[in-house]
Write a structure and sequence with these properties.
Order of helices and strands: HHEEEEHHEHEHEHHEHEHEHEHE
Number of strands: 12
Oligomer: single chain
Shape: globular
Structural class: alpha/beta
Strand order of the largest sheet: 4-11-10-9-8-7-6-5
């Protein structure tokens, strides 16, 4: 099977909400929730995609030939490339019933493991959702990152213990899920967390703790103060607040503010190995990609995931060859241009 076959099959199985567009840019599905769209006008999702396209790569092939490596070291581990699969929840609601949160997570972490990287798994109102993702991570030797929603402290502690027992490489919390009022309607309220709350949560585990949903310097510095291993610059794919800026537009000021005090990841609109190159050049340590993995799974299961990651890796290698970069350390702002 080739990746093009995955895409064609996904068009038949993914459901009516997602159009499996040639490039997942948020336009055809704007406001489509349930579905993969951005909230309201969908502009947060669309900006994520379009602002990345305003960055160009500087081509240079006059250099001594060299072997290219895309490997990255994080969480005291080495991965084949600086790309992780982002968490996607309620897939049978937003896509089709071919998969549920449990079978989706199984395919995600297995496919990522085969490709030498990690999948971030989701959380949900029903207890068996998180347990299922934990079981999936445990089945691949802990090669995954469970993502916990900002529940009440007691429930968070319980889920952290489950994550630790799975052997997970790290734990994440999508603090931007505090805007998901539908969870409270189902009897599981989420809420914003203070710095003191976050400090308490981070101290609950010895695993690297990652805070997802950072869009301001203030938020980034709060996560650093709380002791987070890393932050994910993310607007939740534009799905929790309409009319947010793009993630790439706020990345420079956040990087400048934290000054290497924490690892900085980014998601939102990243669709190719060239996009990955741009984010690394700007200073990000790694990226997360979410929606395209739904296409990969609905079109090819775990194999589809591996094919998609390998596609991204091939594109990243090509970008590195054509810009004179042998390792990720060679990728910096001198290799890109910000178009007006």
């Amino acid at each position: 099977m080739e990746y093009k076959d995955v895409v064609e099959h996904a068009k038949k199985t993914i459901g009516d909400h997602c159009k499996v567009c040639p490039e997942c840019n948020g336009r055809a599905c704007r406001g489509v929730i349930p579905g993969p769209g951005g909230k309201g006008t969908g502009i947060g999702f669309i900006r994520n995609y379009e602002d990345i396209k305003k960055i160009a790569l500087k081509m240079n092939t006059l250099y001594e030939p060299q072997a290219v490596s895309t490997e990255v070291s994080l969480f005291n581990q080495t991965y084949s490339l600086p790309v992780f699969a982002g968490p996607v929840g309620a897939v049978n609601l937003h896509y089709s019933t071919l998969y549920n949160d449990l079978t989706y997570s199984e395919a995600l972490v297995k496919g990522c493991c085969e490709a030498g990287t990690l999948g971030f798994t989701g959380d949900g109102v029903k207890d068996d959702v998180f347990k299922g993702t934990i079981d999936a991570i445990k089945a691949v030797g802990g090669k995954g990152v469970p993502t916990i929603k900002p529940w009440e402290i007691e429930l968070i502690e319980e889920k952290i213990k489950m994550a630790e027992a799975s052997g997970a490489h790290a734990i994440a919390m999508d603090v931007d899920a505090a805007g998901l009022t539908i969870l409270a309607m189902q009897g599981k309220p989420v809420s914003p967390k203070s710095v003191s709350d976050l400090k308490e949560i981070v101290k609950m585990t010895q695993l690297p703790f990652i805070v997802k949903g950072i869009m301001t310097v203030e938020g980034a510095l709060s996560a650093v103060e709380a002791g987070a291993y890393g932050i994910i610059v993310s607007n939740h794919g534009g799905r929790v607040l309409d009319e947010t800026p793009s993630t790439v537009s706020v990345l420079p000021e956040i990087l400048n503010a934290v000054h290497g005090q924490t690892k900085v990841f980014i998601d939102g609109g990243i669709r190719s190995g060239l996009d990955v190159f741009k984010m690394i050049a700007m200073g990000a340590d790694a990226v997360l990609i979410a929606r395209p993995f739904a296409t990969a799974i609905y079109g090819g299961g775990a194999e589809g995931v591996t094919l998609y990651i390998n596609k991204i890796k091939e594109e990243l290698v090509s970008a590195m060859v054509m810009t004179g970069c042998a390792t990720l350390d060679d990728i910096n702002e001198s290799k890109i241009d910000y178009l007006k």
